[in-house]
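Field guide to reading this record: the first block holds the primary sequence, the second block holds the structure written as discrete tokens, and the final block holds curator observations. Each block starts with its own label. This record concerns Tubulin-specific chaperone A, catalogued under organism Solanum stoloniferum.

BLOCK 1 — SEQUENCE
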Amino acid sequence: MATVRNLKIKTSTCKRILKELHSYDKEVEREAGKTADMKEKGADPYDLKQQENVLAESRMMVPDCRKRLEGALEDLKGTLVELEETDEKQGPEFEEARNIIADVEKLFESSEL
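BLOCK 2 — STRUCTURE
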């Protein structure tokens, strides 16, 4: 049985994971720049290898985070549909949930190109 409280929780979960995904994307960019800078300056091979490992770890987190976001999005959509079927469609929670769904779907569409 879906409730407005569940909707709020699932909306917050999507928001948090979306924020986390953006954070990982920024981290990958930052670490890639740092790695390129180290290569350009001819850094010690050991240090360079360590930096490449850091970059690889950061890159591994992005697909994992996207997968969790997809799951959270499906949960949120299901809860929203269930609540709409019971004629509960109004309120700021519903608007916020719809906005998050739109934002996440837009992100997925733009990254699949």
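BLOCK 3 — OBSERVATIONS
The first helix runs from residue 4 to 40.
The chain has a mean pLDDT of 89.
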